Amino acid sequence: MKISLEIRTAILVLTGIVLFVFGFNYLKSNDLLVRDGIYYANYDNTEGLVVGTPVTINGFQVGSVENISLSPSNTHLLVRFRIDRQYNFSKNSTAKIYESGLIGGKSLAVVPALDGAAFAQSGDTLQSSIAPGLTQLVNDKLSPLQEKIESMVNHADSVLIAFKNVFDTSAQAQLNQSITHLASALSAIDNISQQIDQSLQSESGGLGQTINNLNDITNDLKQTTATLSEADISGLIDNLHQSTSNLSLITTQIQSGEGTLGQLVANDSLYNALHQTNTSLQLLLDDLRLNPKRYVQFSLFGKKQVPYESTDEGE
Predict the structure, then answer these.
(1) N or C: which end of the chain has fewer CB within 10 A?
(2) Contact status, residue 42 vs residue 128, Cβ threshold 8 Å
(3) Are 208 and 200 in contact (CB under 8 A)?
């Protein structure tokens, strides 16, 4: 039985169509011979996720993204993806969009929830999340730094403006003059340092001679200290202590009226006797001055002695 040309052509066209459908779905990572579970997830932004993107669990590919569509309310995006039925995970698992590399685009990963809940079934909608990408992380880190840099620049600009306003032409001239004086002072200090260094190096210099004299004084003090250390300082201190005790005893005896010196200090009889003697002597001198004939008589032939007559009315 011969097959007509039209039938053979029809079979060839149908075969081509079937192969095209299988090839197209294979390129889209949709294997028509494998029955996969279909799952959904809602996102505000898919971050560049495309159809055919692999779906992974712990980094292992278990399916692919099948479709991305906008919800009727235009409020979110619905991602439809399929996963091989042999891989089970909790219905509370999360479908996370993450950045697979610097230039690798976005990928979808199922983060299993190890909570012991029932397994997800085909047609379930999983929880969704978007992991921050490298660009977002860099922006999060650089934004505060950028703000600080801008603040520092503004502050530095304000400081420079204030500095410029303070240091006008006259102030700048004074500042230059101060710097010149400072350089002169530093030069003078350097010259003094050189002179001191030369004086220290020269034994005949005044500073060197002073240092030598200080060395001699130090040596003398050392010898004196050695002599004092060899002396009987303890005996000297004991003698001084004994002398002090004796002096204290003598002072006590004088205050108590013991001995001749104590009697002189404590008893006023000697004072009274001396006062009376002084008074009598004063009267004698006065009488000698007024009546010298009573005491001095001169005669060639002798004269009878005149008896003494007191002139004191009280006697």
Answers:
(1) N
(2) yes
(3) yes
pLDDT of residue 28: 58
Q: Are 98 and 67 in contact (CB under 8 A)?
A: no
CA dist 48 and 41 (Å) reads 15
Q: Which of 4, 124, 100 is nearest to 50 (CA)?
A: 100
φ, ψ at 283 (rounded to 5°): -65, -40
DSSP run (H or E) holding 152: helix 134-166
Each domain of the chain, given as residue ranges in start order, spans 1-33, 34-131, 237-273
| Backbone angles phi and psi of 215, in degrees to 5 | -65, -40
* Range of 17-26, 135-144, 299-308 with top mean pLDDT: 17-26
CA distance 133 to 60: 20
In Å, how far from its chain's centre is CA 241? 58
* Residue 247: how many other CB atoms lie within 10 Å: 10
Q: Are 106 and 46 in contact, with CB atoms under 8 Å apart?
A: yes
Cα distances (angstroms) measured from residue 232 to each of 190, 221, 227, 238, 243:
54, 18, 10, 10, 17
pLDDT digits (tens, 9 = 90+) for 10-21: 888 888 888 887
